[in-house]
Each structure stands twice: as structure tokens, then as C-alpha cells.
């Protein structure tokens, strides 16, 4: 299978919707809704994440672009903080668009950059982990 990318749906069971971007977004970013558009989620301003930007985006999404967002699923590769390990509960972090350890309802099914123990037959990028969305 090779290497999964940020924003990939590792198992093909994610529900994905289209939304307008409020600003620059990249695949794998955790997003929230603000003013009727999706924006990177963080632990200060946009604290209610709805999903993860799909890998179907090419390059960086700009304000006003349509973007595909995974809103549920059990195998989405999300942007996570370094050293996250499998089994860690995740929440939005101080870094925009990234998950870190916390009680936000996301679950790390793999470690950051490592698919050890996870039967997906693929490797993961740095700052990427297979996650279960809330």
C-alpha cells in the first residue's frame, strides 16, 4: 500500500462533506466551523472541531475554495503532535490544525509517524497518525 498521506481515509469508511474554506488549509488539518466556513481548529479560538481535511486537496487550500472534510470515520490520517502514541485520547492543540493529547473525543489508533501494530500495510508521514474521529 505504500505510505499514507495526511488526510487519507485508511479504511474507506469515513463520511466526507464539502465545505468552503475560511483561509489556508492543508490535508490532515483538523478544522472547525467559524462564520459558515471551515478554519483550522485550535485550543483558543476555534475550539469545536468537526473533522479533518481530506487528502483530495492538492497543495494549500485558500479562502473561498471548496474543501472535502472527513466528519466521521475510524481511520483518518490526521495532523498530530510529535510523540503521540497509539491509544492516546486527542483534542485540538495550541498549534492550529493539529491534535495533541487531551480529552477531545478523538482517538489515536497509531502512533505519530508509525503504524506499528496497526494492520494497514502502509507507513505514515511525520506528524501523521491514524485516528478515530468523534
Kindly describe this structure:
This protein has strands at residues 2-3, 15-20, 30-34, 37-40, 49-53, 66-72, 76-79, 89-92, 99-101, 106-108, 122-123, 128-132. With 134 residues, the protein is an all-beta fold. A hairpin with a 2-residue loop joins β3 and β4. It has a single domain (2-132), classed as Virus Head Decoration Protein, Chain: A (Beta Barrel). Helix content is 0%, strand content 37%.
Q: Can I get a quick summary?
A:
By secondary structure, the protein is mostly beta strands.
Could you say which structural class the secondary elements and strand pairing correspond to?
Answer: mainly beta
Q: How many distinct beta strands? A: 12
CATH superfamily (homologous) name: Head decoration protein D
Approximate shape: globular
Q: What's the domain count?
A: 1
CATH top-level class? Mainly Beta
Uncertain regions: pLDDT < 50 for 5+ in a row? Answer: none
Distance separating the two termini:
26 Å
The ordered H/E elements are EEEEEEEEEEEE
Helix tally equals: 0
CATH topology descriptor:
Virus Head Decoration Protein, Chain: A
Looking at the overall shape, the CATH architecture is Beta Barrel
Beta content: 35-45%
- The main sheet orders its strands as 2-6-5-3-4
Amino acid at each position: 500500500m505504500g505510505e499514507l498521506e495526511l488526510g487519507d481515509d485508511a479504511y474507506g469508511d469515513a463520511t466526507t462533506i464539502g465545505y468552503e474554506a475560511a483561509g489556508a488549509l492543508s490535508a490532515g488539518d483538523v478544522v472547525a466551523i467559524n462564520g459558515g466556513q471551515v478554519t483550522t481548529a485550535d485550543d483558543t479560538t476555534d475550539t469545536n472541531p468537526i473533522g479533518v481535511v481530506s487528502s483530495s486537496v492538492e497543495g494549500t487550500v485558500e479562502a473561498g475554495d471548496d474543501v472535502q472534510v472527513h466528519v466521521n470515520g475510524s481511520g483518518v490520517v490526521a495532523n498530530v503532535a510529535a510523540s503521540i502514541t497509539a491509544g492516546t485520547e486527542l483534542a485540538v492543540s495550541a498549534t492550529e490544525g493539529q491534535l495533541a493529547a487531551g480529552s477531545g473525543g478523538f482517538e489515536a489508533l497509531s502512533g505519530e509517524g508509525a503504524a506499528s501494530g496497526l494492520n494497514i500495510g502502509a507507513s505514515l508521514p511525520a506528524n501523521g497518525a491514524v485516528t478515530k474521529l468523534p
